[in-house]
Amino acid sequence: MRTRHWFAGALLVLPMAAAAPQVHAQDGPPVLPEIVGSSVFLHYHPDLRHRRDGMLAMERGANDMALRHFVRAAEFSDKPSQAFLADMHWHGTGVPRDRALAYAWMDLAAERGYPLFVAYRERYWHALDADERARVQDVGAPLYARYGDAVARPRMEHMLRKGRMDFTGSRVGVVPFGLEVLVPSPTGGWMRIPEDWAYQERFWHADEYFEWQDEIHDRMPQGVVEIGPIAPGDDGGPR
């Protein structure tokens, strides 16, 4: 099945995609791809790492591998990966088609009220038949028990705490250099970055990290999240 590039593109309006050199928070330093794309950073952000690897696998047509990465990201409360899993189950991409399970994944992705995922959750629901709706509770309860924020966020918080200790402790490839740090350059060697750019609280403190994600989703262009009614013959899923 062909990859739905526009759907993947919409899900990239997220911390990793926002990490361009020109992006500055209104109240903080910029988010540089050299930081958030580094192996060191991604080691302590398994939500972003597995989402990235899942998308790369999907682009290669390695759907089984994509599924595994998205599931791993979902374990660390990554809502876009949960939405990807919903999309895969809705269309039967690499898995047996199961629209009730797809709805349950999208309901989980919409747990924080992100507009794109809420819109798709409602679109999915209206496309389900009575039998599929009757299955939603049964298939959804185990997902929430393992991947809901109540249990998945603490896993991510644990990794961020480890990152604060190790990443900022100069033991894994980030070297303090006065008021700067040295990070691996994408072209080889090292590059100097101001210390406060690498040690931003939104990178390493759970409350600020999840607030950062919320802000990025809230900035998603309205044209992306306005999804029209289901046309005759439409099964409700993204194209």
Question: Could you give the topology of this structure?
Answer:
Elements (H helix, E strand, L loop, with lengths): L4 H7 L21 H4 L2 H5 L2 H14 L3 H13 L3 H13 L7 H11 L5 H13 L2 H18 L1 H18 L8 E3 L2 E5 L5 E5 H4 L2 H4 L1 H13 L3 H4 L14
Antiparallel strand pairs: 1-2, 2-3
Helix pairs in contact: 4-5, 5-6, 6-7, 7-8, 7-9, 9-10
Pfam families: Sel1
InterPro entries: Sel1-like, TPR-like_helical_dom_sf
Protein name: Sel1 repeat family protein
Concise description?
The protein is built from 14 helices and 3 strands. It is mostly helical. It is globular.
Overall number of strands: 3
Tell me the structural class: mainly alpha
Q: Give the helix tally.
A: 14
Per the principal axes of the C-alpha atoms, what is the gross shape? Answer: globular
Oligomer class? single chain
How far is the first residue's CA from the last residue's CA? 11 Å
The Rg value, from CA coordinates, equals 19 Å
Largest beta-sheet details: 3 strands, antiparallel
Strand content: 5-15%
Rounded mean pLDDT is 77
Low-confidence stretches: 15-25, 170-177, 222-233
Number of domains: 1
Element pattern in H and E:
HHHHHHHHHHEEEHHHH
Spatial sequence of strands, sheet with the most strands: 1-2-3
Helical content band: 55-70%
